[in-house]
Write a structure and sequence with these properties.
binds nicotinamide-adenine-dinucleotide; alpha/beta; eight-stranded parallel beta sheet; 12 helices; 329 residues; eight-stranded mixed beta sheet; ornithine cyclodeaminase, domain 1; Rossmann fold; 2 domains
Length: 329
C-alpha cells in the first residue's frame, strides 16, 4: 500500500484555523473521557539544555491514538535557534499517520503549520472553558509564529478587546501589531517593558526565554496565565500560589516546561494539579474561573492534537487527489 506525502501547501488548501480549533476541542474531550491515548512525549536534547551535542535544539517524539478519528500517528518535532539565523521558522516537524488496525503508513506530512495552528487552538479551547467571555483582553509575551497563531485562534472564539504585547525584539512586536490589526478588534499596544504586558484576562507566554519574566505580584485576580514556552516563563511564587493549575497532560507537564524545575526541586507534585483541560472539556472538572481566582494553565502540547488534525487533512487531500503517493516497501 502506498503512503501519501503532503506538503505544507497541500495542507493549507484543505483546512483552516477555525476547523483546527474545533478538532482540538473534540480531541481534548477524547483525552478527558479516555478515548484518546497519548503517552508522554520522549525528548531528545540536542543542546537545548545539555552541553553535548552543541546544537541549541531539541526534538520530541509524540505518538497518539485518537479515538474519535480512529487514527494513530506520531509527530517528530522540535525547535532549533540556529534555524532562525538562516530565516527558517524555529519549529521543525513531520507527522506520520498509520492505519491503527494493521499499522500501514497512510501519510507523511509537514507538521510545522499544524503545530503552529494547533498550539494556538489549544489556548483558545482552554479559554473557551475557563474564561467567562464573550470578549477578552490579552497580555502576550513573544510575537513570533506562536504569538500570531495564539491571537488568531483566540479570535475564533472571542472578540479580542485589546492586546498588550512584549517581545525582546521590538521589531518583532511591531510586525505582530501590524499583522494582527484586522484580527484584534481593539488596540494592540507594544509594551516597553515586560511589566507593561502583564495585564488582561489572559496572559500568554510563547517565548524561548529561560528567565522567569512574569512576576507573581503582577498577576491580578481573575487572570489565567499560559506559560507555553519550552522553559519556565513565570516565577516560582506564581506557580506555587495559583488558585488552580490546569494542564493538558500531567506526565508531560511534570517533566517539561513551566513545572519541571519545581518538580525536580520537590516543591510541586502531581497532586498540586487540579484538572486536565480534557477533564474540563469533558465536563468532569469545573471550568469557568471566578473573579478572585488566579489560574495557571499549561498546554505543553500533545501529539494527539497533531494526529487528529493530520487525519482530517489526509481524508480531504485524498478526496481532492492532492499530494503524491510513495511506496516505501
Ligand atoms: N506548548 C506548545 O504546544 C508549543 C508548541 C510549539 C512551540 N512552543 C514553544 O513556543 C515558544 C515560541 O515558539 P515560536 O515558534 O513562536 O518561536 P519564534 O521564534 O517564532 O517566536 C518567539 C518570540 O519570542 C521572543 N522572545 C524570546 N525571548 C523572549 C523574552 N524573554 N521575552 C519576550 N519575548 C521573547 C523572540 O524574540 C521571538 O519573537 C518556543 O519555546 C516553543 O518551543 C510550544
Amino acid at each position: 500500500m502506498s503512503t501519501v506525502l503532503l506538503s505544507q501547501k497541500d495542507i493549507m488548501k484543505v483546512i483552516d484555523l477555525e476547523e483546527v480549533v474545533q478538532i482540538v476541542e473534540k480531541t481534548f474531550e477524547g483525552l478527558g473521557n479516555g478515548t484518546t491515548i497519548n503517552p508522554t512525549k520522549v525528548g531528545l536534547d540536542l543542546g537545548e539544555t545539555a552541553s553535548y551535542p552543541p546544537y541549541q535544539g531539541f526534538m520530541n517524539a509524540m505518538p497518539a491514538y485518537v479515538g474519535w478519528r480512529d487514527v494513530a500517528g506520531i509527530k517528530w518535532a522540535g525547535g532549533f535557534l540556529e534555524r532562525k539565523k538562516i530565516g527558517l521558522p524555529y519549529i521543525t516537524s513531520l507527522i506520520l499517520l498509520i492505519d491503527p488496525k494493521i499499522g500501514n503508513f497512510t501519510a507523511v506530512m509537514d507538521g510545522e503549520w499544524i503545530t503552529t495552528m494547533r498550539t494556538g487552538a489549544q489556548t483558545a479551547v482552554a479559554l473557551k472553558y475557563l474564561h467567562k467571555g464573550p470578549s477578552i483582553r490579552l497580555g502576550l509575551y513573544g510575537a513570533g509564529a506562536q504569538g500570531h497563531s495564539q491571537t488568531e485562534a483566540i479570535s475564533k472564539v472571542f472578540d479580542i478587546e485589546e492586546v498588550r504585547v512584549y517581545d525582546i525584539s521590538r521589531a518583532a512586536a511591531e510586525k505582530y501589531a501590524s499583522d494582527m490589526k484586522d484580527v484584534v478588534k481593539g488596540p494592540i499596544v507594544v509594551a516597553d517593558t515586560p511589566r507593561d504586558a502583564a495585564w488582561g484576562d489572559a496572559i500568554v507566554c510563547v517565548t524561548q526565554s529561560k528567565e522567569k519574566f512574569v512576576k507573581n505580584e503582577w498577576v491580578k485576580p481573575g487572570t489565567i496565565v499560559f506559560p507555553m514556552g519550552s522553559y519556565q516563563e513565570v516565577d516560582d511564587e506564581f506557580i506555587l500560589s495559583a488558585d488552580r493549575v490546569v494542564v493538558d497532560h500531567i506526565g508531560q507537564c511534570l517533566h517539561r516546561g513551566a513545572l519541571k524545575e519545581l518538580v525536580e526541586a520537590g516543591k510541586f507534585e502531581e497532586k498540586d494539579i487540579d484538572a486536565t483541560i480534557g477533564e474540563v472539556v469533558a465536563g468532569k472538572k469545573p471550568g469557568k474561573i471566578s473573579d478572585s481566582d488566579r489560574v495557571l494553565c499549561i498546554p505543553i502540547g500533545t501529539g494527539a492534537m497533531d494526529v487528529a488534525v493530520a487525519s482530517v487533512v489526509l481524508e480531504r487531500a485524498r478526496a481532492k487527489g492532492l499530494g503524491s503517493s510513495f511506496n516505501f516497501v
